[in-house]
Amino acid sequence: MIRVRSLEFRYPGTDFLLRIPDFQVGTREMVAVIGPSGSGKTTLLNLVAGILVPEQGSVHCADSEVSTLSDAARRDFRISRIGFVFQDFELLDYLNVLDNVLHPYRITGALKLTPRIRERARDLLQQMGLGDKIQRGVERLSQGEKQRVAICRALLPSPQIVLADEATGNLDPRNKGHILDLLFEAVQAHGSTLLAVTHDHELLPRFDRTVDFNDFLVKDGL
Question: Which of 34, 44, 106, 188 has a Cα at 20 to 30 A from 167?
Answer without folding.
Answer: 106
